[in-house]
Every structure is written in C-alpha cells, then in structure tokens.
Specification:
By secondary structure, the chain is mainly α. The chain has a domain of 61 residues. Helices cover 67% and strands 0% of the residues. It has three helices and no strands.
Length: 93
C-alpha cells in the first residue's frame, strides 16, 4: 500500500512493480557449478570406479560436461567483469 504523503510519478510506481527479487538461478555461476559437479561425477564413474557398467557413457558425459562447464564458466566470468566495470564506470564525470 502506498502512503498518501508519498509523491510518486506513475512511471516510478510502475518500475517498482516490475522489479523482481533475484533468485539463486540468476547468479551467472549457477550453471557452471552444476556442470562441474556432473563432470566430477562422470570422471569418477568413467575412470576411477571399477564396477561401472556404462563406462563409455560416463566418459562421454565427462567430456561433454567439462567442455560445457569451461564454456559457461568463461561466460560467467566475462559477465561478472562486465557488470563490475559497468558499476565502477557509472560515476559522475
């Protein structure tokens, strides 16, 4: 509820309503962490667990998740650097 003594323009009231609270899924490192976790699991099952039935599947999964994990980690680092540079460069000139 808005207070009667608050003076808001309609545009600022709309922007407040459009803001959504961030979730853990919004973090750029969420997907890389999940992918690296799967990569560790696939590497263990493909090379270090002697009782695995589907060794080729685990070795292929390890290759795919390592490549995807490296790519999405690189993208997350770039996104974080761009956000940091954008925040530090937004000062008055």
């Amino acid at each position: 509820m808005s207070h009667p003594d608050e003076t808001r323009t309609p545009a600022s009231a709309e922007s407040d309503e459009d803001e959504v609270a961030p979730t853990p899924f919004d973090n750029p490192f969420f997907l890389p962490v999940i992918l690296w976790g799967f990569a560790i699991w696939f590497v263990y099952d493909g090379w270090f667990n002697p009782e695995m039935e589907w060794i080729k599947f685990n070795r292929g999964g390890a290759l795919v998740t390592v490549v995807l994990g490296a790519y999405y980690t690189w993208r997350a680092v770039r996104e974080r650097r761009a956000a940091r540079e954008g925040a530090s460069g937004a000062g008055p000139s």
